[in-house]
Amino acid sequence: MKERVIQLEVFRYNPDTDTEGHYQHYEVSCLEEWVVLDALNKVKETLDPTLNFRWSCHMAVCGSCGMMINGEPKLACHTFLRNYPGTIRVEPLVHFPVERDLVTAPDDFMEKLKRVKPYIIRKQKQPIEQGEYKQTPKELLRFRQYSMCINCTLCYAACPEYGLTKHFIGPAALALAHRYNQDSRDQGRDERQEVVATKEGIWECTFVGACSEVCPVHVDPASALQQMKIASSFDWIKEHLLPGGGK
Amino acid sequence: MSQKPLIREVPPASWYFRHPRYLRYMSREITSLFVGAYCVLLVFGLGALAGGKESYESFLLALQSPLSIAFHVAAFIAALYHATTWFNATQVAMKIQIGEEFVPGSTITGAHYVIWVVLSVIILLLAGVF
């Protein structure tokens, strides 16, 4: 296996001693097949045990190792060194507060995720004796893509709207709202609309489309948001322009 | 969250230089200014038409000035760019499911181009170009 010496510029911030972040240079020998996360782990194991970053699964499932790699939001476990011939600059995800080094605080996203009620809501629950809520493959297809979200928040780091307007609920949370709205077992769209169809929700999105470009699991949040805009516009037309408020 | 997280502000006036995709987005948005300006010009044209033959002819004469021709060329290029970026985006906004398949994105975008051409031909026919 081919080895290569990798040059890393890694963002460092220690809340106990620093007021600003700075970059630290590391030179580490890696196998060409490795990903950026492997290089960071080698730095931590052999050069600098004080370097902090989050990771868990190493297979693009847990969504923990999101970071900016040469200015692009990426999962470090999914970013191959062979695609980066020069120095690799690694920073914490932008638009989030930095806890320490490459670790960001996702609290704002978690709070917003709760607000869109990302779970099945039933107006009347079916008694358990009646069995499960059944769904056809066609009904499953309506929302399947949006259920693939791993909450890695790369889309929040890519979204300039979220960076500039902190009240924006943001791509992943809104895409999950759409996922449940599209689910044939769900009856909670009206409740979600109070959060979704607002200036904090879909109407803050200006369709930059960056969220979908960086999504590592192809959820396509931009698509979800535009579909919700169209559906909400029809709601408005029904309510204001049709006789009887469209009821 | 820690006691002292580092907050990195986004520069409000220069964020779009951070990545080429943001520049592409801004260029799409800026073309709408030309589309808007051309609409204003059409409103002035209607006003001139309502003002009688003389005022409409002086409006037509003003359109032949080099400045006006330069604006029309710029507005035409901007409108083309604006239209193509939006038509290409329609496949993101419209997901049409038939049975257990989605209609391919290229079909949705292609249909918009076809409608665009058909409507343009009809308008040019009505305008007596052919």
- Terminal CA distance of chain A: 68 Å
The largest inter-chain interface, given as chain pair and residues per side, is:
A-B, 37 and 27 residues
What do we call the CATH homologous superfamily of the largest domain in chain A?
Alpha-helical ferredoxin
Summarize the main sheet of chain A.
5 strands, mixed
Major pleated sheet of chain B? 2 strands, antiparallel
Strand content of chain B is: under 5%
Structural class label of chain B: mainly alpha
* Contiguous uncertain segments of 5+ residues of chain A: none
Individual helix count of chain A = 9
Compute the number of helices of chain B.
Answer: 4
The global form of chain A is elongated
Characterise this structure.
The complex is a heterodimer of chains A (247) and B (130). With 247 residues, chain A is α+β, with helices and mostly antiparallel strands. Chain A has helices at 36-47, 107-115, 137-141, 154-158, 160-164, 171-181, 189-196, 210-214, 221-241; strands at residues 3-12, 22-31, 66-69, 72-75, 88-91, 98-100, 103-104. Chain A folds into 2 domains: 3-104, Beta-grasp domain (Ubiquitin-like (UB roll), Roll), CATH 3.10.20.30; 107-246, Fumarate Reductase Iron-sulfur Protein, Chain B, domain 2 (Orthogonal Bundle). Chain A contains 9 helices and 7 strands, in the order E-E-H-E-E-E-E-E-H-H-H-H-H-H-H-H. Chain A has a 5-stranded mixed sheet with strand order 2-1-5-3-4. In chain A, strands 6-7 form a two-stranded antiparallel sheet. Chain A starts with a strand and ends in a 6-residue tail after the last helix. Chain B has helices at residues 20-50, 53-63, 66-93, 105-126; strands spanning 97-98, 101-102. Chain B is flat. Chain B is built from 4 helices and 2 strands, in the order H-H-H-E-E-H. The chains are: A alpha+beta (247), B mainly alpha (130). Chains A and B meet through strand 6, helix 3, helix 5, helix 8 and helix 9 of A and helix 1 and helix 3 of B.
